[in-house]
């Protein structure tokens, strides 16, 4: 059998031509610009425009990344929900500094938030949990997130069992399920540019205002 040629990834490239980002396009508050870009990602019909990569670090300094969905944002931070026994939750318990990256590469854009994660109040978690589809509520009970399992059938059987158990009643909030608010102090906006001269602007909180600097690409 002939050996398959390896894809030449070193020469995979294209020009970024969808537009630049200039200082006149910026807002005093990074959240205003973020909201504008998020709405444009939604209007462009990107798959999962609220998907963000959450980066954490374990006790040995090893970074980890995974995609989660943004569920709320305001001046106090960005919110996501997860299993509190998950690997990301264990990392946050040890080191609550996290990075959130929105990879809107179809629009040749990225937004990166840096900040500290804090647990949400039980009241806020319950309110969101009860708004989820019933199957999603049951799934929260089924999965011990990040734990090793021997087969998918274990999850499916447990899901069916709980679906029968809760079919006529309200599904309670699992004690091991919750959410985090990431209070951010740094936001970087990246817009692809021609000739690899990308536009990058960094917002950093300075006591009572946002300091804005252009970064070299």
UniProtKB/TrEMBL annotation:
Binding-site residues, FMN: 66-71, 81-82, 87-88, 110, 145-146, 190, 200
Listed Pfam families: PNP_phzG_C, PNPOx_N
Gene Ontology BP, a term: pyridoxine biosynthetic process
EC annotation from Swiss-Prot or TrEMBL: 1.4.3.5
Record's cofactor remark: Binds 1 FMN per subunit.
Source superkingdom: Bacteria
This protein's record includes keyword 4Fe-4S: no
Pyridoxamine 5'-phosphate oxidase N-terminal domain location: 38-163
Entry annotated with the keyword Oxidoreductase: yes
Binding annotation for substrate: 13-16, 71, 128, 132, 136, 196-198
Swiss-Prot/TrEMBL catalytic activity: pyridoxamine 5'-phosphate + O2 + H2O = pyridoxal 5'-phosphate + H2O2 + NH4(+); pyridoxine 5'-phosphate + O2 = pyridoxal 5'-phosphate + H2O2
Cofactor(s) required for function per UniProt: FMN
Pyridoxine 5'-phosphate oxidase dimerisation C-terminal domain: residues covered: 177-217
Keywords from the UniProt entry: Flavoprotein, FMN, Oxidoreductase, Pyridoxine biosynthesis
Pathway assigned in UniProt: Cofactor metabolism; pyridoxal 5'-phosphate salvage; pyridoxal 5'-phosphate from pyridoxine 5'-phosphate: step 1/1; Cofactor metabolism; pyridoxal 5'-phosphate salvage; pyridoxal 5'-phosphate from pyridoxamine 5'-phosphate: step 1/1
GO MF term set: FMN binding; pyridoxamine phosphate oxidase activity
Sequence similarity: Belongs to the pyridoxamine 5'-phosphate oxidase family.
Function: Catalyzes the oxidation of either pyridoxine 5'-phosphate (PNP) or pyridoxamine 5'-phosphate (PMP) into pyridoxal 5'-phosphate (PLP).
Subunit structure: Homodimer.
Protein's UniProt name: Pyridoxine/pyridoxamine 5'-phosphate oxidase
Native source organism of the sequence: Arsenophonus nasoniae
């Amino acid at each position: 059998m002939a050996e398959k040629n390896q894809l030449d990834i070193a020469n995979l490239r294209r020009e970024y031509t969808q537009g630049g980002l200039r200082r006149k396009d910026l807002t005093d508050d990074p959240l205003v610009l973020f909201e504008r870009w998020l709405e444009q990602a939604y209007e462009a019909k990107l798959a999962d425009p609220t998907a963000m990569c959450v980066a954490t670090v374990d006790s040995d300094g090893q970074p980890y990344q995974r995609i989660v969905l943004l569920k709320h944002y305001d001046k106090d931070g960005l919110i996501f929900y997860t299993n509190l026994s998950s690997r990301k939750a264990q990392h946050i318990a040890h080191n609550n500094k996290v990075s959130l990256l929105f990879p809107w590469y179809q629009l040749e854009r990225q937004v990166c938030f840096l900040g500290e994660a804090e647990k949400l109040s039980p009241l806020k978690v319950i309110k969101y949990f009860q708004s989820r589809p019933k199957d999603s509520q049951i799934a929260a009970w089924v999965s011990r997130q990040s734990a090793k399992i021997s087969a998918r059938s274990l999850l499916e059987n447990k899901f069916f069992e709980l679906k029968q158990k809760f079919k006529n009643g309200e599904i309670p909030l699992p004690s091991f399920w919750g959410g985090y608010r990431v209070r951010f102090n740094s936001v970087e906006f990246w817009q692809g540019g021609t000739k690899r001269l990308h536009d990058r602007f960094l917002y950093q909180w300075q006591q009572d205002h946002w300091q804005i600097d252009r970064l070299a690409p």
